Amino acid sequence: MEEKALKEIPQLSMEDFKSDQMVKWCPGCGDHAILSSVEKVFPQLGIRKEDFVVVSGIGCSSRFPYYMNTYGIHGIHGRATAIASGVKIANPDLSVWVITGDGDSMAIGGNHFIHVVRRNIDLNILLFNNRIYGLTKGQYSPTSPKGIITKTSPDGTFENPFNTGELVIGAQGSFFARAVDKNPKMMVKIMLEAAKHNGTSIVEILQNCVIFNNNTHELITSRETKDDNQIHLEHGKPMIFGKNKDKGLVCKGTKLEVVKIGENGITEDNLLIHNQYSEDPGVHNMLARMTPPFSPMAMGVIRSVKQDTYNDSLDEIIKVSKETSPLKTVDDLLTSGNIWEI
Length: 342
Prior knowledge:
- This protein is an alpha/beta fold.
- It has a domain at 14-216 and 309-315: 3-Layer(aba) Sandwich (Rossmann fold), CATH 3.40.50.970.
- Helix content is 27%, strand content 17%.
- It contains eleven helices and eleven strands.
- The longest helix has 15 residues, at 310-324.
- It is globular and about 85 Å long.
């Protein structure tokens, strides 16, 4: 269960991971920044290019394997995590990355998604959340805000949306982080941490769809409002945010509360200290659920804990079976039990 050690870095660069395919996302789409960030991350992982596999489902984000010069599988809708699980179990030495969207992963792929998280298979999942179906031209998705008017909700949706982090932590997730497509530096930092994590890592990226849901994350990402609506979490540091770094979070009962430093005797010493390694998911879940304008949205690594992985457990059970089973060869199997000759 130890954190994976990064191997000696081979002489690779961004250019080594760029494919010869034309990138066909819309101009201004947040996917371009995510692609560039992944191209920066892969050369830093100390992994041979031929040991990377990029797996996707269906959606705008799922064109990703074509744009990476690695092995890749463009799967079917919602099944990327199932395919990736098979790839990783068949060859545990591979670095397997799943590219998915909010619809692909949490609607048709919802069952696969929660179970890959629960099993803690050693996969890196990048979940692009633009809160809409972009490829199929603008239907509402499981993360679309309540009341949004779309082609499939002309009078506004009346469904409560999923919160990705709450879903991951509720499924016993061992790693959850969040970033925005407008902050490539943070994306790279988080992806590097996700790659080192031994188990299923989920990185939710708030991504903008310029055509069908433009500025859906504007409150969180715009220059005028982002400082008061984002809190950048760092392990071991107090939870401070705001344009003037004068706001913070405290825990009152089972809720997080925004306070202002200097008011009512509040000092930095009163603020919560972020502990991403805490086994207790309580505060992590509260952080994942925060939503502007009532509270800032938590960015960075929210949860990163050590848990048994499916891969480790599978290796152990195979080892024990080999040592204890009376069947050592195929002939042993064929001549065991009730047999007869014809």
